[in-house]
Amino acid sequence: MEEKPSLLIIGNSNVGKSTIAKLLLPNPSQYKGKIGKTPGSTLLIKPITQKQMSYQIVDLPGFGYMKKESRRRQEHIKQQLVSHIENYHDKYFFGLVVLNVLRIEDELGKYFYEKQKTIPLSFEMITFLLEFAIPILILINKIDKISNFDEIRIIKFFIDSARRYGFNIVHLDHFNYDYQVQLPYLKFSGLKKTNLGKLKKIINFFFTNYYK
Ligand SMILES: Nc1nc2c(ncn2[C@@H]2O[C@H](COP(=O)(O)OP(=O)(O)O)[C@@H](O)[C@H]2O)c(=O)[nH]1
Ligand SMILES: [Mg+2]
Fold this sequence. Notes:
Rossmann fold, binds magnesium ion
């Protein structure tokens, strides 16, 4: 990887990772990467950056499942992500864990009601990033797709579910910057650019902090 400090973007396929990466570029129109395409079969790590940027973005593809993927393949992809983070964790100043608001009830509900023993992949990844001292923000994306009413219900469900795994999730506005105690979330829309200003601000905060 190049020498600029890196911002990690992680999440299931199709949650909006590439869209968010593009929104963070000073010159989005120069971005040649693909949005809305099915990820390839191997984990391709290609940092995105532009001249005027002080950091680079690593939009990690292939995390999570596509319906047709076998368990074994999912495990393989997860293992690749895990070794990548093990090898490069000190380059990452911040991580965005992106969730699709429309998938939260399905994904987390499944674990509780089917009483599966495994922990949800997003929570597993969060734990893993925190073990390597990478600060994170949970971005609840595609918020434009639901009503206010549903949004409140789903976010409450998310926070309650997370608590069962020992995560105390609070809105970014109330975050005390102590990852031992809290984890911040922000609702977001890549389409409407909801909270893009707040997102850029916290990225810059952790970028600056990286050098302290
Ligand atoms: N409605 C809506 N669509 C979005 C949003 N963010 C991304 N998308 C769409 O979701 C699809 C997947 O986005 P992409 O960025 O490629 O997801 P990735 O697979 O996580 O990189 C594309 O069709 C995007 O245009 C959002 O906030 N709202
Ligand atoms: Mg993508």
